[in-house]
């Protein structure tokens, strides 16, 4: 009886061990994903191309050229630069055909003007002539005509002129001159007498010593 119970216990222990090993294998196996849709493989080709239309290119002997807000280096401010060999799309000529408007991103309006002799241009015949942009308004100080102000009843407040304040008079201190009347022997005579007495005493001492 005891032998049979030991046999059943061994079988039960072996079965439990098999079940535990099967569970461990089941949960440790990597999960597989089922693709529900076809996924593209490989790299997507990038389409590159060259810009179309007129282009300008800075001459190689020009290190840097200026880009201006209008077709003049004196009437318009400089807004950027182009380096030697740099290219830009061209939009049109100025009225005197000396300047070319280009696409210049990063500035208000996205356009600028460059001097035509500094660049080469392709398809120049297809470029239109463009009007000049307005120039900057100079800063002026508005003035009011007194006649017009009186006509419309405008009260003009006169400007207060600067006033000059007279400084306080300078007071110079005055000292009283006290005249001293000296009496008696002059100091020079006393010094001379004392010197003679000293010389006489020295002579007497020399004679006695001999």
Structure description:
With 210 residues, the chain is of the alpha+beta class. The chain has a domain at 55-126: SH3 type barrels. Helix content is 27%, strand content 17%. It has three helices and seven strands. The chain has a five-stranded antiparallel beta sheet with strand order 6-5-4-1-7, with no helix packed on it. It starts with a helix and ends with a helix.
Look at the helices and sheets and give the structural class.
Answer: alpha+beta
Assembly context of the chains: single chain
Tell me, rounded to a whole number, the average pLDDT: 74
Do you know the CATH architecture of the domain at 55-126?
A: Roll
Residue fraction in strands: 15-25%
Query: What is the number of strand segments?
Result: 7
Count up the helices.
Answer: 3
Q: Estimate percent helicity.
A: 25-40%
Q: Considering the protein shown, what is the CATH homologous superfamily of the domain at 55-126?
A: SH3 Domains
H-E string = HEEEEEEEHH
With strands numbered from the N-terminus, the spatial order across the biggest sheet is: 6-5-4-1-7
Distance between the termini: 168 Å
For the biggest sheet, the summary is: 5 strands, antiparallel
Uncertain spans:
31-35, 45-49
- Name the shape in a single word: elongated
Rg over CA atoms: 57 Å
> Given this structure, which CATH class of the domain at 55-126 is correct?
Mainly Beta
